[in-house]
């Protein structure tokens, strides 16, 4: 039995909830470039692939997904409950765990700079890992609005 890649791609692109979630993610990613440019008065296309930033594209993606599932399957469905819990976990991780890891990286980088004065050259750690609560909420609102607009 041959697998038809075209038909599988069609199933994905025909999934309005999934495509809406991808749209919310893409809008959030583009808004990161815009917000960076406004704040720092220069374009930085690296923001498309760097973690952190305003708004949280993770939050936009998962809240759009959860909202879309709620709108299509019903807010009283088990599938919506699953999507909502998934969204909450992702947003907690973005604002909590990953942000704390970024703060730890900042402290470790300061220690490394002190050690570098003694001719050690370890690699710097990435400090911008997580999101502020405002970035998470902004991403979440964006996701909900995109889902309501598209679905």
Task: Describe the secondary-structure layout.
Blueprint: H1 5-13, H2 16-40, H3 57-73, H4 78-116, H5 133-150
Can you give a write-up of this model?
- This protein is mostly helical and 151 residues long.
- Helices cover 72% and strands 0% of the residues.
- It has helices at 5-13, 16-40, 57-73, 78-116, 133-150.
- Helix 2 crosses helix 5 and helix 3 (57-73) runs antiparallel to helix 4 (78-116).
- The model has no long low-confidence stretch (mean pLDDT 83).
Which tags fit this structure?
mainly alpha; 5 helices; 72% helix; elongated
Strand content: under 5%
Rounded mean pLDDT is 83
Largest sheet: none
Total number of helical segments?
5
Structural class by helix and strand composition:
mainly alpha
Helix content: over 70%
The radius of gyration over CA amounts to 19 Å
Contiguous runs where pLDDT drops below 50 for at least 5 residues? none
Given the C-alpha coordinates, what overall shape results? elongated
Total number of strands:
0
Q: What gap, in angstroms, lies between the N and C termini?
A: 35 Å
Order of helices and strands: HHHHH
């Amino acid at each position: 039995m041959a697998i038809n890649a075209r038909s599988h791609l069609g199933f994905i692109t025909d999934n309005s909830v999934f495509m809406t979630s991808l749209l919310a993610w893409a809008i959030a990613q583009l808004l990161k470039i815009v917000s960076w440019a406004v704040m720092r008065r220069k374009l930085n296309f690296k923001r498309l692939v760097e973690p952190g930033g305003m708004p949280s594209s993770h939050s936009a993606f998962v809240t759009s997904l959860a909202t879309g599932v709620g709108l299509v399957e019903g807010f009283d469905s088990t599938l919506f409950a699953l999507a909502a819990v998934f969204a909450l976990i992702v947003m907690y991780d973005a604002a909590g765990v990953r942000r704390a890891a970024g703060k730890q990286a900042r402290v470790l980088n300061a220690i490394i700079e002190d050690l570098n004065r003694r001719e050690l050259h370890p690699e710097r750690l990435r400090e911008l890992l997580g999101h502020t609560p405002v970035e998470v909420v902004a991403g979440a609102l964006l996701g909900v609005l995109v889902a309501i607009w598209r679905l």
